[in-house]
Amino acid sequence: MMLICPLCASLGTAPFHRDVRRDYQRCGRCALVFVPPAQRLGPAAERAVYDQHENSPDDPGYRRFLSRLFDPLSARLAPGVRGLDFGAGPGPTLSVMFEEAGHPTAIYDPFYAPDASVLERRYAFITATEVVEHLFAPGEQLARLVDRLEPGGWLGLMTKRVTSPEAFAGWHYILDPTHVCFFSEATFAWFARRHDLRVQFPADDVVLLQRG
Q1: pLDDT single digits (tens) 12-60
Q2: Residue 1: pLDDT band with limits 50, 70, 90
Q3: Which GO molecular function annotations are given, in alphabetical order (predicted)?
Q4: Alpha-carbon dihedral sign for residues 62, 205, 48, 20
Q5: Which of 69, 140, 78 is nearest to 103 (CA)?
Q6: Closest CA to 27 of 43, 49, 42, 11
Q7: How many domains is the chain built from?
Q8: 4 located within any domain
Q9: 206 beta partners
């Protein structure tokens, strides 16, 4: 069956991996690896997985984890600029860290903070930590975030990256049933070219994209 890439809408996708749980396709244009739509969880089952998360700004370990994105992004921001944490989850923490650093930060999450009015504003930076791998329509959703950036603004993403078919086959990241899209450096490079962004990779699971 022909499957359309959810990032670039190409029909040039091919089987990449298969296990007892799911199938995985890879796009020949943008290199996104994705799960077929028919194998995604429904909203109730997806929410049930997220409800098990116990993230909190009071957890030093979680703050250290988020610092992988916070540190390189905050170093690039002018004092006092405003941001948005997209997909903040049930325990918003990165937004708290930016607020503490003097950056007013709105939050949005389709399950836990669904005030879509924040998506109508413009921001100097937008973050999405451990979010893009959950998106059903990453092409549309990420393009909308880029559109919400001010000129020179930053989109900071945290997600683990595909490296090789061999590594993918034994990768713990694909065991989470809510993970349906898997990006590589090549995927982010394609996305940056498509949207006229500058791309940087400050860590193995962090990418910074700057709007021109």
Answers
A1: 999 999 999 999 999 999 999 999 999 999 999 999 999 888 888 999 9
A2: low
A3: methyltransferase activity
A4: negative
A5: 78
A6: 11
A7: 1
A8: no
A9: 158, 203
